[in-house]
Design brief:
single chain, 494 residues, alpha+beta, Immunoglobulin-like, DNA polymerase, domain 1, Ubiquitin-like (UB roll), 3 domains, seven-stranded mixed beta sheet, six-stranded mixed beta sheet, 15 helices, 23% helix, elongated, CP2
Length: 494
């Protein structure tokens, strides 16, 4: 075995894609055969990793990869709905003195397609309504081992969290209860199911330092009805066996287990939105192992009353694009320009009902946002919100229906009044603003007509006033009611 593990890494190019993410030595065909069977994940986890002493992690899902995946594509794994699959986690490298022996990991199932990620809240709410009381992701706690603390809260149907001891073997048996075709528009049958992702984030759990994200990895999956994954796996295998030997080299080999691919932390869909609380675990650790407790929520869990962290796609802690729970700040910018700061962009997005995308655009300035094309915005936000955001960014000032110039008798300059709706009430509001008064103190507006008659201004009169005309304004006060009447006198421009 050791001789095989020392084989030249360049000898088997098609295996390098899978193994390079985990810094594992490449596995020859004879070693692959030794992995087949119930202990294949044990063999993978036992392989040495040469990472220069840096801490890393390895996650292995006990489900085979599809044989119909091309060498330049990401692996795809088929799962059966409601079936328990073992997910082994292991720390690689580092020392207990540097990292401690306890870690906290989060598992989440979410959409692979970025467009669906932004509608995840609506999709999951619909699923929740159709299947009340059920979870998208759950753990079979009697089968799991090496877990000190496990939580699965009802408000986060697609996420689980647990604490584990890196000095012991650790395995979590997970079940995915939704199928890929449940989120496909129903037509006439035969719909192609959408792929999901399983992502695992691991955080430090030291008592003396700030908790930080150490490692993130994920894999692509599709979920079928019971036994459907086995049939799909056989169909793919038969398909590959029928093609020529030359064409077979275009496909990756199928492995009996799925090794989750490392995701750069900067690119990860991070599940941890807020700072985690400091761990309260002593060196003796008062938490109860899962297999000794019939309940998933452990009685000694020090985080039992803490909120569950949420990710960018969380459907419980994020406002939808159709509205925002938070009132926009009073100083929110009215329009995005190339000089708008990133913080003002976030405030503008929330104020204009694009709060769902604040995380995605968190570092965008106005210049960055304005460089995006309509097609790029649709790809990021989906069709409806993409078009709406593009229109909001490109909007120009609406031309007023009526523009008039007024001159207060005691002043020598004119003021411009732009009337967008051209109503009497809008004219009163504009005049009141001109005098720094409340509109309620202006009882009515008169227009000086022929033979110096006073014409009561109504909506119809305003709508028939000539555009770009000049008027002098005279304010007449009613001494008894303390209200005012405004008299407009047209100034001839000849």
């Amino acid at each position: 075995m050791n001789a095989l593990l020392g084989h030249n890494p360049m000898a088997i190019s098609r295996d390098s894609k899978i193994q390079s993410f985990f810094q594992l030595p490449l596995i020859t065909s004879s070693v692959e055969n030794s992995l087949v069977g119930s202990h294949s994940s044990d063999a993978l986890l036992a392989l040495p990793v040469f990472n220069g002493g840096q801490i890393s992690f390895q996650y292995v899902l006990s489900a085979p990869t599809s044989p119909a995946t091309k060498v330049n594509e990401e692996t795809l794994t088929y799962l059966n709905q409601g079936q328990a699959y073992e997910l082994k986690v292991k720390k690689i490298g580092g020392s207990q003195h540097d990292t401690g022996k306890y870690f906290k990991s989060y598992i989440k199932v979410f959409f692979h397609d970025k467009r669906l990620q932004y509608t995840e809240r609506e999709q999951i709410d619909s699923w929740r309504a159709q299947r009340p009381g059920e979870r998208i992701l759950e753990i079979d706690s009697p089968l799991s081992y090496g877990i000190l603390d496990l939580r699965a809260e009802q408000r986060n149907l697609n996420m689980l969290e647990f604490v584990w001891d890196s000095t012991k073997d650790c395995g979590v048996f997970i079940k995915v209860n939704c199928i890929s075709t449940e989120f496909t528009p129903k037509k006439h049958g035969g719909e192609k199911g959408v792929p999901f992702r399983i992502q695992v984030d691991t955080y430090s759990y030291n008592e003396d330092e700030q908790r930080k994200l150490l490692y993130c990895a994920s894999c692509q999956i599709k979920v079928f009805k019971p036994k459907g994954a086995d049939r799909k796996q056989k169909t793919d295998r038969d398909k590959v066996e029928k093609i020529s030997v030359i064409d077979k080299d275009k496909y990756q080999p199928s492995f009996d287990v799925t090794v989750l691919t490392e995701v750069p932390i900067d690119n990860a869909i991070v599940m941890q939105r807020t700072q985690l609380p400091k761990p309260v675990v002593s060196t003796t650790c008062e938490m109860t192992p899962v297999h000794n407790s019939p309940s998933i929520a452990i009685a000694h869990n020090p985080y039992h009353n803490q909120p569950v962290p949420a990710d960018v796609c969380s459907f419980d802690n994020e406002t939808s694009s159709s509205g925002s729970a938070d009132s926009p700040p009073a100083n929110t910018v009215r329009q995005i320009t190339k000089d708008t700061s990133d913080s003002d962009v976030s405030a503008w997005l929330r104020a204009n009902r694009f709060g769902n995308y604040c995380k995605f655009f968190s570092n965008f300035t106005g210049a960055d946002l304005l460089t995006l094309t309509r097609d790029e915005l649709i790809q990021i936000c989906g069709l409806a919100d993409g078009i709406r955001l593009n229109n909001a960014l490109q909007v120009k000032s609406v031309r007023p229906r009526l523009t008039i110039y007024v001159n207060i008798q005691s002043e020598s300059v004119f003021h411009v009044l732009y009337l967008g709706t051209a109503t009497c009430q809008e004219l009163i509001d504009k005049l009141a603003n001109l005098f720094n008064a409340s509109p309620t103190v202006i009882v009515d507006v008169h227009l000086l007509g022929v033979n110096k008659i006073h014409i009561l201004v109504t909506d119809e009169v305003v709508q028939n006033m000539p555009d770009n005309t000049q008027y002098s304004v005279e304010v007449l006060k009613n001494e008894t009611t303390e209200q005012y009447r405004v008299l407009l006198t047209r100034i001839d421009q000849g």
